[in-house]
Amino acid sequence: xxxxxxxxxxxxxxxxxxxxxxxTLRLAINRDAGGEFLQWFHFRVSGAAGSRLTLKIVGLAQSxxxxxxxxxxxxxxxxxxxxxxxxxxxxAQEDDGTLTISxxxxxxxxxxxxxxxxxxxxxxxxxxxxxxxxxxRAHVLxxxxxxxxxxxxxxxxxxxxxxxxxxxxxxxxxxxxWMEGALQELTDPASASARLLRAKAxxxxxxxxxxxxxxxxxxxxxxxxxxxxxxxAAPTPERSPEVLxxxxxxxETGVDFALDVHGDEALPHNFIAGFEGIPxxxxxxxxLLARFKDRLCQHAPEFQTKVGYPVAAPGKANLAMSTNQLAxxxxxxxATLEMPFKDCSDLPDPVHGWSPDRSKRLGxxxxxxxxxxxxxxx
Length: 378
Prior knowledge:
seven-stranded mixed β-sheet, five-stranded antiparallel β-sheet, 17 strands
């Protein structure tokens, strides 16, 4: 049986360059709409049961984050349920940057991905199952350029308003796994943190800000080639309706706390980026952000504050990014949570690396940290 490669499915992305020998495939990643970014891959190899395969993804010096490849390990699955780390290496000198993945599937098909995918079908299952739980209100805030709904789940009846949103960058699929964990926790009647949050706040959760990019297999952009996390200063219906719809609803509700959930290609840590460079920053905002991070350290041993992004100089924050824009516009506490594509160096798992289950657990910890500061918001 011939070995074949396919990616014509939800979030698929790869192209076959050539097959130098029966066990070696040279592959390349297709660019996002807009042409600026390439990094996400997700594909199936069929017809290789018992064979040792060498998969070479070439041209990665042109990827969005070449620094993300050293020390990275691809994810593989034979049942699309359990994803493990594959034997992976990176050579910056080979074929303009080559990621080599070695696998020996036991069955006729094996799936490879940059991170465990979170399909749009699973997204719809998440919306349906969560919306059916007591106290949950489901909203469609608007539609994407491809006509997909921007789903929002509202939970709780308290006076404070918290917004949590994920997958502005669609290839950062760990963000929606995080959301699944957070939504399970928030709707669990036995969770003390969830009961507290539901009583003291209205929580608006957008599990997937970029459904078009997710389905198309993009790393960072929507159908128009827009990086949504650079659209918050002036979103438009033609270029970034996803941001426009969410920001319009935020303007109606107000915002006391906002959390933007992401993944980072290069840093093997969980960390938070804040809003330190906004023009109107207050000591109160900074103190509450510091308290949230401190409480998260207590709830999640896999979270840390020593490694992260450089802090913007005073008055120099990029207000096109959501965390900065929301902190400036609403005077709220706002944060960007980053999780690794690589394993988490603080508590490594050599089999699974950073994983869907670990992402979901971090979602639970973040809610516990939010519950610790909820009384001090506003």
